[in-house]
Design brief:
This protein is mainly beta. It contains one helix and six strands.
């Protein structure tokens, strides 16, 4: 239900992400008030171990940031 585009740039990435409101409403109902989104990218360089890069900090563990990636309607 979502679309994305990724462009690699010097020193990083540019990512555009689209999630239709109809999908959120299908999951939470038409009267939803917030949604939490976190995007991850698996960075794999030749010969190196892959690492995960996250758009927002994890909401789990000791370094959790409350409400990270939460969007209010």
């Amino acid at each position: 239900p979502w679309t994305y585009a990724i462009r690699r740039q010097t020193g990083g990435y540019t990512i555009e992400f689209s999630l239709p409101l109809s999908y959120i409403e299908a999951q939470q109902g038409a009267d939803w008030s917030e949604v939490r989104i976190n995007l991850g990218l698996q960075d794999t360089d030749h010969g190196e171990k892959p690492i995960s890069l996250w758009w927002r900090p994890s909401r789990f563990g000791a370094k959790a940031v409350p409400d990270s990636g939460t969007f209010l309607r």
